[in-house]
Amino acid sequence: MSKLGNLGARLHRGEVGYDFVKNRKIWYGISILITITAIVGLAVRGLNMGIEFQGGAVFTTGKTSVSVSQAEEYAEEASGHDAIVQKLGNGDDGSLRIQVAGIDTERADQIKDTLAEDMKVDPESINAELVGPSWGDQIANKAWQGLGIFLILVVIYLAIAFEWRMAVAAFIALIHDITITVGIYALVGFEVTPGTVIGLLTILGYSLYDTVVVFDSLKEQTRDISKQTRWTYSDIANRSINSTLVRSVNTTVVALLPVAGLLFIGGGVLGAGMLNDISLSLFVGLAAGAYSSIFIATPLVADLKEREPQMKALRKRVLAKRAQGGDQDEPQTGRSADEGYADEATPAVVGPRDQSAARTRGRGGPSGKRR
């Protein structure tokens, strides 16, 4: 832990670092490849929409020794539709949750009686719940409206608090995260339920958190950037990523650990379906959000910013100075951007001011008076 803390401090001071911005084309390529895979999976396999969005009936049995495969066969024979069966609880005598889409109330009562007969249980021990497709449509419409309003407000806020280029980069990173998460759902085949929608809306805030932290550092370090010739905008953008890297990794790992517990233990071991719906979207979204904030959003801001005439002129001055044997740009120099500006603008004192020997020669007594 002490080594990690020392690494974080050295990254923050700029003594060590990795050039994320320089290798941005690699990260863009990886993101494009993952996004295309997600879109292809979504187009080919589609989303496994839950019964809340399709309408139908949900039958919950009491404790039974009937296996999942047997219950699925009974339900499909009784309804004439595909059925989804989940085991609730542990052991061989757990209860079952049977979903059948596209049936009405009268048909649900018949299926309930048939299931009770096939499974050799009392019909009263099977609980039937009907879900109308209009309710699922309302949830989907509200989710889309909420997503649209959220994205608009985020872009407006970032454009005001930072600048429009950062707003554009954050927007692209959000779309990147949502596309990957939805594509993973299509590839894995997990059922899309209201819990999934909640998870997708939740990851938007997490996805923006690390991005805004880096943007804030970048905004602070690029203040009066044109007054110096030591670093380009991309150099300082890379410094901002490295200085907040350990914080981003720590917050992401801390957030992923409980979500992983929900996904792999709560959903996988205990068989809790709703936990699967929420935890998978959170797990994938958090990981994608951390990746996009480091490898996509900030390098994209640097790309957009370097197109400005002022930044192009600055880059020419910096490269010309380096070609003449001036100060070299090394991310491991251990000096902040503000210190670099101080060298060529106004004088600045970094750290405690050294006391000269003449001023301290006569201060030997406790009172500090000269002898």
User: CATH superfamily of the largest domain, called what?
Assistant: Multidrug efflux transporter AcrB transmembrane domain
Give the helix tally: 14
How large, in whole angstroms, is the Cα Rg?
A: 29 Å
**What is the succession of H and E elements?**
HHEHEHEEHEHHEHHHHHHH
What does it look like?
With 371 residues, the protein is of the alpha+beta class. The chain folds into 2 domains: 2-49 and 135-310, Multidrug efflux transporter AcrB transmembrane fold (Up-down Bundle), CATH 1.20.1640.10; 56-131, Alpha-Beta Plaits, CATH 3.30.70. The protein is built from 14 helices and 6 strands. It has helices spanning 2-13, 24-44, 51-54, 68-79, 105-119, 133-161, 164-188, 194-221, 233-243, 245-269, 273-305, 309-323, 337-344, 357-360; strands at residues 48-49, 56-60, 83-88, 95-101, 127-131, 191-192. The strands form 2 sheets. A 4-stranded antiparallel sheet has the order 3-4-2-5. The chain has a two-stranded parallel sheet with strand order 1-6. A hairpin with a 6-residue loop joins strand 3 (83-88) and strand 4 (95-101). Helix 10 runs antiparallel to helix 11. The protein is elongated, with a radius of gyration of 29 Å. The protein starts with a helix and ends in an 11-residue tail after the last helix. The model is unreliable at 328-371 (pLDDT under 50).
